[in-house]
Amino acid sequence: MLEDRAIAAPSPTAWPTAYPEGYAVVDVETTGLARDDRIISAAVYRLDARGEVEDHWYTMVNPERDPGPVWIHGLTSEALEGAPLFPDIAEEFAARLDGRVLVAHNAVFDWQMIAREYARAEREAPVRQRLCTIALSKELGLPLPNHKLESLAAHFGVVQQRAHHALDDARVLAEAFRPSLRAAAAGSVRLPLQECRPLTEWRDTATPRIGQQAGGSGGHGGGYGGGYGSYRPTSWRPSRKRPACPYPNPGRYEEGKRLKQGMRVAFSGDTSVERDLLEDRAIEAGLHVATSLSRLTSLLVTNDPDASTSKVVKARQYGTPVIDEAAFGQLLRDVEPASRQ
Fold first, then answer.
1. Distance (Å) of CA 329 to CA 11, 187, 321
2. Rounded distance, CA 90 to CA 61, Å?
3. Taking CA 270 as the corner, what is the angle to CA 84 and CA 321, rounded to the nearest 5 degrees?
4. Per-residue pLDDT band at 36 (split at 50, 70, 90)
5. Phi/psi of residue 217, each to 5°?
6. For 272, how many CA atoms within 13 A lie in the half-sphere containing its CB?
């Protein structure tokens, strides 16, 4: 584990009294994106009320299973074998989160991974609020080409040294968050804070020990090394029978307006929230989840609008509105009731 301290510099900006008193800028690297995946490294930059760095901390974590996409995060079975287990670092991790707003890029993903790890350890993460820097950049109207961390960093002139390394990603985000926070304070912008609801129980499905292959057979191509054959960046998902949507389709979603019950929503690509859970939330809100995209589709949700998947290609052809997962999550909070018949 690595720790360092820094001396905070004063900021002359007049500060909104309603803003939080401190932040924990977090990045976690994981074995994958699903609910049963595990944290393999974590980093925290603690910031004061005005975004100045107080200290930082980093650790690797033994996930007790296949490390997943090594070509992305660079952490092999050998590197992780001697790392502490999550229960061994849970107390120190918690101390760095305690009393602070968790800040992350696509924060719902980092928070859910952290909450699940604490639930497995039969503990609770001391986090009550989170702030997503994607949502904050939208509130500030930053002219970004997309919502990737590298684009936010480039906007503020922050240089990335080791992409997908938890400590460097957290550093980059902390350096980009500081000017974002100051811009929000200067404009009296309401911070897009979200409630964090810790998990109280957890039951894992069977997962292999580190160095063993999950799923039992098959490889996925070059660059894996032994034991990584189960990881599928674009895994096939069996369809689930869902109840019919009781509301008529009111048409396409219009930017700046609310979603309306009955709208047909399609999803494409990986999502930070487990796809089935995201679809369940949409159905509970009264939306129609479509497995394919047609001219009747009201909205496509994807984190990669430049992908060449069939749904994204058809959305371009049909002029179907496209938004990312973070924006969709915000819209789900206030869905307009269907019109009375």
1. 33, 25, 16
2. 10
3. 145
4. confident
5. -160, 160
6. 22
Please report the pLDDT score of residue 321 as a whole number.
95
Q: What is the pLDDT of residues 162-174, one digit of tens each?
A: 989 999 999 999 9
Single-letter residue type at 340: R
Q: Could you tell me the pLDDT band of residue 275, with boundaries at 50, 70 and 90?
A: confident
Please name the amino acid found at residue 96: R
Compute the distance between CA of residue 46 and CA of residue 53 in angstroms, rounded to an integer. 6
Question: Per mean pLDDT, which range of 22-36, 192-206, 214-228, 258-272 is the poorest?
Answer: 214-228
Helices 275-284 & 325-332 angle (0-180, nearest 10): 30
CA distance 229 to 214: 7
Going by C-alpha positions, the residue among 201, 203, 202, 149 that lies closest to residue 176 is 149
Cα distance between residue 182 and residue 10, in whole Å: 12
Which parts of the chain fold into alpha helices (H)? 70-73, 77-81, 86-97, 107-120, 133-140, 149-155, 166-186, 275-284, 310-318, 325-332
Length of the chain (residues): 341
Least confident of 85-99, 213-227, 287-301: 213-227
- Other beta carbons less than 10 A from residue 317's beta carbon: 10
pLDDT of residue 278: 83
- 323 and 259 in contact (C-beta within 8 Å)? no
> 203 by DSSP, 3-state: which?
coil
Q: What is the C-alpha separation between 339 and 332, in angstroms, rounded?
A: 18
State how far the Cα of 125 lies from the Cα of 202, in Å rounded to an integer. Answer: 14
Say how far residue 319 (Cα) sits from the centre of its chain.
27
Give me the chain's average pLDDT, please: 84
For residues 269 and 71, what is the distance between their CA atoms, to the nearest angstrom? 19
81: three-class secondary structure by DSSP: helix
